[in-house]
Specification:
about 230 residues; Arc Repressor Mutant, subunit A; Four Helix Bundle (Hemerythrin (Met), subunit A); 2 domains; three-stranded antiparallel sheet; 3 strands; globular; disordered N terminus; disordered C terminus
Length: about 230
């Protein structure tokens, strides 16, 4: 059973925790494109009610990660190479805007938090913990977006966030996890300097690095293979 190895989640856990568990199983290859997610089965195996599971599935479907089929549950959607490349570029532009705004608004405490997250990403990378590093990466970028002081930016960014966790760790097996973490340091330096244009530029370059690595995959089948997809579904 696909989720048989999942540890029970306490009943009070929110749907966001269940969503993260589903994303973790995708990242680790336990769930693959085309696999079905049955609400009742997930609720039983994670020892929660169906309500937060339903919310998690609805959230993931809302951002295009899952496809919901009436009377058949949800299925992990297969993505094309172009979809991932488009998403990286769009998210990069949103985060460049966020970095530009954050450069003149960010607090000393937030800078300290970013530095701590960079250190934690390096530690997770050295340990080979791709999922743990992906979560810290999300915290880093969320902190920058929050420092921008724009709820509109936060809403738009949140729509793309689930995709970001899987870009290099799931789609490019063998990616240098230490490098993935360390490359955030230049963003912190630009923000600490209060240089709005520099912050926007390095954040955009940050996204372009990801896009270029994905673009180096010569065909869509390379990416699908990295995700564990098969032609037979």
């Amino acid at each position: 059973m696909l989720m048989a190895q999942a540890d029970p989640i306490a009943r009070e856990m929110l749907s966001s925790k269940i969503k993260d568990r589903i994303l973790q199983l995708i990242l680790e290859g336990e769930l693959k494109p085309g696999d079905r997610l049955v609400e009742t089965r997930i609720a039983r195996e994670l020892e929660v009610s169906q309500s937060p599971v339903r919310e998690a599935i609805r959230d993931l479907a809302g951002v295009g990660f899952l496809e919901i089929e009436p009377y058949r549950g949800a299925r992990i959607r297969r993505f094309t190479r172009d979809e991932f490349l488009d998403d990286v570029e769009i998210r990069g532009e949103l985060e460049a805007i966020a970095a530009r705004r954050a450069a003149t608004r960010i607090t000393a405490d937030q800078i300290d938090e970013l530095r701590s997250l960079v250190a934690e990403m390096r530690a997770r990378g050295e340990a080979g913990d791709a999922h743990g590093q992906a979560l810290k990466n999300t915290e880093f970028h969320r902190t920058v977006v929050e420092a921008a002081g724009s709820r509109a930016l936060e809403r738009l960014w949140a729509m793309l966030e689930p995709f970001a966790r899987t870009y290099l760790t799931a789609m490019v097996p063998g990616a240098d996890l230490v490098w993935l973490g360390d490359r955030h340091s230049v963003i912190v330096e630009a923000l600490e300097a209060g240089d709005a244009e520099l912050a926007a530029s390095v954040m955009r370059q940050h996204a372009h690095q990801v896009r270029d690595i994905l673009a180096d995959h010569e065909s869509e089948s390379d990416i699908l293979q990295a995700l564990g997809a098969s032609e037979g579904g």
